[in-house]
Amino acid sequence: MNNMGMAEKIKELRDKTGVSVMLCKKALEEAAGDFEKAVEVLRRESFRTAENKAERQAKAGIVDAYIHSNKKLGVLVEIRCETDFVAKNKEFLEFSHDIAMQIAASRPENIPSLLAESFIKKPEISVNDYLKEIIQKFGENIEIGRFFIIEV
Predict the structure, then answer these.
(1) Max Cα separation, the chain?
(2) What DSSP assignment string belongs to 43-59?
(3) Among candidate residues 35, 53, 71, the one where a domain is terminated
(4) Which domain holds residue 14?
(5) Is the pLDDT confidence value at 128 over 80?
């Protein structure tokens, strides 16, 4: 594959995953230029990254809310990260809101059951997979903390 083809694939992989250019390049090299295999390489690496970050303390974060359009269901969720820099990031805020909507849609009993569910916006992955992708993207430990469901 010529350099232009590789550069285009790296850009496409970065656009799809949000992972750094260097990690995208490494994944494409490992996958011998195969885009779908590179996505799997990045997914596998996200699990390793999450495991490595798990011991680090997540002392920063946010509380997000989701109120259903009928105004009869609300969710509050705590999402923790290591730094305020990440807590203010647009993609982190989107992740937090996605988790609040997931909780509203599925009404899980606890965090482990939430993590095991299929992610509503992308059913081919679990909520846990989504969390690990976000950890890889930011390079910080990120945790879903407490959540509360209020329903009329």
Answers:
(1) 60
(2) HHHHHHHHHHHTTS---
(3) 53
(4) 3-53
(5) yes
